[in-house]
């Protein structure tokens, strides 16, 4: 899955709001390819994080989402990392990489 927004090496150190929006949307499309973003990102992120059961979703406010850089960036970088791990885990699940572990645990994956 490609992103139509190029990211430089310094983007993850000091991103613009536009960079964050593209990264978040790209990652979420890996998790839910059918989702269509329609509102401002600051209105869409909280319900998405709640739906994903992001463990720190209550600590992220709409006003922080509207200005992700600066002192809040570490918190958002952690959230993006968590989303990437979730997307990778879902890819592995779809590829059947967890079938043996599920079978050993007595979970039917058929």
Q: In which range does the helix fraction lie? A: 40-55%
**Cα distance spanning the termini:** 27 Å
Our count of helices gives 5
Structural class: mainly alpha
Strand content: under 5%
Rg over CA atoms, rounded to whole Å, is 16 Å
Question: Could you characterize the architecture of this molecule?
Answer:
The protein has 110 residues and is mostly helical. It is built from five helices and no strands. The chain has helices at 17-31, 41-52, 62-65, 73-94, 99-104. The longest helix is centred in the last third of the chain and has 22 residues, at 73-94. The radius of gyration is 16 Å and the shape is elongated.
Features:
110 residues; mainly alpha; 5 helices; 54% helix; 0% strand
Strands, helices and their partners?
Blueprint: H1 17-31, H2 41-52, H3 62-65, H4 73-94, H5 99-104
Helix pairs in contact: 1-4
């Amino acid at each position: 899955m490609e992103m139509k927004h190029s990211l430089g090496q310094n983007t993850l150190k000091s991103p613009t709001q536009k960079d964050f929006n593209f990264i978040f949307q790209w990652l979420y499309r890996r998790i839910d390819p059918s989702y269509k973003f329609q509102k401002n990102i600051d209105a869409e992120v909280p319900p998405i994080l709640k739906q994903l059961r992001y463990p720190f979703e209550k600590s992220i406010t709409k006003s922080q989402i509207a200005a992700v850089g600066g002192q809040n960036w570490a918190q958002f970088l952690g959230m993006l990392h968590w989303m990437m791990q979730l997307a990778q885990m879902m890819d592995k699940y779809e590829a059947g990489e967890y079938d043996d572990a599920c079978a050993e645990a007595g979970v039917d994956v058929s």
